[in-house]
Amino acid sequence: MEKRQNPIPEKKVSAVKELIALIKGNKTILIASIKNLPASQFQEIGKKLRGKAVVKVPKKNLFSRAIDGLKDKDLEILKEQFQDSDAILFSNLDGYDLSAELIKSKSAAKAKPGQEAPKDIEVQAGPTDLPPGPAISELGAVGLQIMIDKGKISIKASKVIVKEGEKISQAAADIMAKLDIRPFSVGFVPLSAYDKEAKKLYLDIKIDREEFVNALKEAYSRSLPFAVEIGYANSETIGFMIGKAGMYEKALLKLVNVQTPEIKTEEAPALTENSGEEK
To answer: Residue 154's pLDDT is what?
Structure first.
């Protein structure tokens, strides 16, 4: 192996030492994509994470040198996960908790032509701050009905101007910019997290709290009627079960009153002396 003719720059040596110290001193090493993330939003997210995580964006070869310097085979897997468009977060938070913090720190972003709509993009009915002028024809070009109210353009009726999955046109992007509609969210995208204590690598750690809560609500709405139907009694189902029993009671009473014939009774003849043995 040939010896290196030029010494390694002190700046790189210091960077590797710093990475080694961060790996040693933290429980979680999380790798997140920062591809296409504007510098201003990167800095803003960094501020939000102060006290929770240290964010570094090293070159891949420097990160690999730091892993090699630790001489820990369990950490070798991190080399495969890290790319030059990624950031590394060092923290004592659990990997999933740190991932949730990254999701919360995302911010809204404007749409650009050619992007795919993440959901139906709707312009709501109501007043705008746009004065009459070129904006009238621009709004009409995407199918919006307008009127002038107090010297400003007002949208007559709500309308979806881009459906989920469709490419955003230049006209639609311009309208969204004028109306300050920001359908995208940008931020760190969690990719993987390594837990040093458990010595495990976790993939697919992106956590969407809103989606998770909605999934729980849907599961609850499906399980509750099933539990009532099978007679599984608990604090959530007992009220429905009592109500159901009351409905059955009313139905049975109605059924008995309709179908049961009235029974007529006659008085039995009184016994007399001549009755003998007759009954």
So the answer is: 92
Report the percentage of the chain scoring pLDDT > 90. 38
Tokens representing 111?
Answer: 């749409």
CATH of the domain at 167: 3.90.105.20
Give the range of the structural domain holding residue 87, as residue numbers without chain letter: 10-106+187-206
Does the pTM exceed 0.85?
no
Of 2, 208, 12, 24, the residue nearest 103 (C-alpha): 208
d(C-alpha 35, C-alpha 186), whole Å: 10
Residue with structure tokens 């790189």? 12
| Residue 20 shares a structural domain with residue 137 | no
| Across 102-106, 149-153, 167-171, 265-269, least confident range | 265-269
2 inside domain: no
By the 8 A CB rule, do 244 and 232 touch? Answer: no
